[in-house]
Amino acid sequence: MYFPYLRGRQYELIALRELFSERAWLKEYITPIIEPVKVSPTLLSTLKMFNDQQQRYIIIRNPHVGSFVADSSKDKNATTFEKIIEEVDKGFAFSGVIVDKNCINSVNQLCHKGVNK
Prior knowledge:
Number of helices: 5
Strand content: 5-15%
Number of strands: 4
Shape: globular
Structural class: alpha/beta
Radius of gyration: 16 Å
Distance between the termini: 42 Å
């Protein structure tokens, strides 16, 4: 199994779509990890294609690169963002999380609060 890590930029997403549309048998061996960098129609169409082909993928839920989080709250991106979330929730996506110092500190705080109760 191969898990390529991609930042979800336009040309990376297009390359994934072409790869899996031309070589559908690869879905057995490759599970892409996508860290979305912005809310875009290209991201949406890629996720739709993955779901249509029942292609597993991992989507990073706390992206650290790009403007995805900021873009998601803008009115002009609201519809596209909602559709992206709908596609992610269809069942072929696995959630990925970037574990960094902030994440570890949050988990430690939760664990210590739970121990004290």
